[in-house]
Here is the input.
Amino acid sequence: MRIVVATLAIAAAFAMPALAADQVEKAPPTGAYKKVSDLVKLPDFLPGLGQLYVDPKTLPAGPFLAYNRDGRLVSTVYMLPVEDLTNKDKRFDDLAAPGGKVNHVDVYFNAGHPGVEKPHAHVVLWHVPRADETRVAAK
Amino acid sequence: MVSRRYILRIGGGLLAGLLLPRLPLAAEAVEIRMQGNADGSHVWFDPVGLRVETGQTIRWINLDPGNSHTATAYHPKNFERPLRIPGGAEPWDSDYLLPNETFSITLAVEGVYDFYCVPHEHAGMVGRIIVGQPGRFPAADLSVQATGGEPIPEIALRAFPSVDEIMRQGVVRPA
Here is the structure.
């Protein structure tokens, strides 16, 4: 009996870190993430990005978690307002990066959209090879 | 008997009619398309400038598959923005339109109407509609800062086509 209890205690101790981290590999992610299209009036699936989730407390920078039509995480996106990037007193430090291994990175300008209304840069950490970007392309 | 001078006068009138921009009939809704490129780096209204008759219905349609847009009149009732539509005209705000959604209004008061897209004003997504006949509006350039409310960003002010250009062309497409 004592051995069983000890085994369970050890198993629980190892399980705790896994339970504490959010599950982000498949949509919907756990934790404080909300579907962006439920927070603001935007299409549920954005061509070129996919289905986005974000913790509202982290707006506007994110991270936004982007999923393909199969619900698999394809990228982590940060949205950085241009006026902040040109402000010497503004920094974006310690942005969360829960998506794991990064295959490649895209950075490009975006004119704005509900949620991040001012022109900003999209910094996209792709977790899939470039060929798989088509999984979030327009149909 | 029909004189040669009469024929010339009629012909001249017809020619002048062909040269003037054709204004849409009030019964037809005139469409303004909300558009954007694939990565969202550029967004616009098409046309960006338009001249119509009194009583014309305008219909905005969002043809941008990756973004939401609004058609919002510059008016203190809309987020305390400066007044840039005729006094006495009703302001409008479409709220966010998802792809393929539409919004319509009918413009009953003559004058110059300036409008913008709420999430894209800072990207210069604005438009101008002139309702009524040529020559009834002051020649002053309206692309200046109006008083009251949050100022209009410079990029938006620069994006308005001039009244003269709209009067001359009838329809002004984005550059």
